[in-house]
Request: fold
Amino acid sequence: MTFSRRQLFTAASAAVCCVSGLSNLTAADPPKRTGSPLLKLSLAGYSFNSMFAKRGTPDEISKAEMNIEKFIEYCAAQGLGATELTGYYFPKVITPEYLLSIRAMTHRLGLSISATAIGNDFCLVEGEARQKQLAECREWIDYASIMGAPAIRVFAGKVPSGDSEDAAIERCAAGINESLKYAATKGVFLALENHGGITATPEQMMKIIDKIETSPWFGVNFDSGNFQTDDPYRDLAKIAPYAVNAQIKASISVNGKKQPADYAKIIEILKNAGYRGFVALEYEEAESPFEAIPKILEQLRPLCS
Reply:
């Protein structure tokens, strides 16, 4: 492996980090890992996106083909050890009692909640809409803490019309920094996803990461299907060292042209980065997820072991 100057700095300061503790890790540096790579399979709720009622009433949820409880049972039936519970599919009214019931259910079935996710936009200019986004992030930090979910996938957003990318990046970093202060009090990671907009390339990702204040609760959500560059595998390798959560998709896009993903190559990228954590399959193809997901999991299991 070749190492960037930042990675070499991380290695050189490893002893200091070990003595001083997590509080001295720098957010812009890859997390320090020990031991061999360890990949634990999970499944993202978004894999059944069209079947869920989004933020529905109890009646709407009961009539939907899929809901949170059914999805948890499906993950257990597939022999998984974890489940990713996307925020969009939770009830319109979320209570602590409901969240605790989900925590109890997953534990009884031997499942960890690998992560949850929100559809935020931190590029918004200052105003009511931006404050609402920040409030929602704090709200989901609370929800994740109650459920025992270690991480939240967060988005950066897109450049507002008439604005500059540099200004949007500054606001995004400011939003993450503000949210991280609260996340630290709840023990929840914020994982910035490579999700288009101002995170469409690893270079854009690094512009944001370099502006994040020191926090052991920040990292990247490595999504294998979201870069649409000339060499997505090359670019995934650039963000893999920063991953605190990972997702794998059935397709990858080269210059925007979709093709089947090379699962072995994606897993190798994570292992080469020393990644230790959850890898959630996020299925988005046309074939029925009930038909396709078991087959993909059978391909991923030997690669992750």
In short: The beta strands are 38-43, 82-86, 112-117, 151-154, 189-193, 218-223, 243-248, 251-254, 257-260, 276-281. The mean pLDDT is 92. The domain at 37-304 is CATH 3.20.20.150 (TIM Barrel). The CA atoms of residues 96 and 176 lie 25 Å apart.
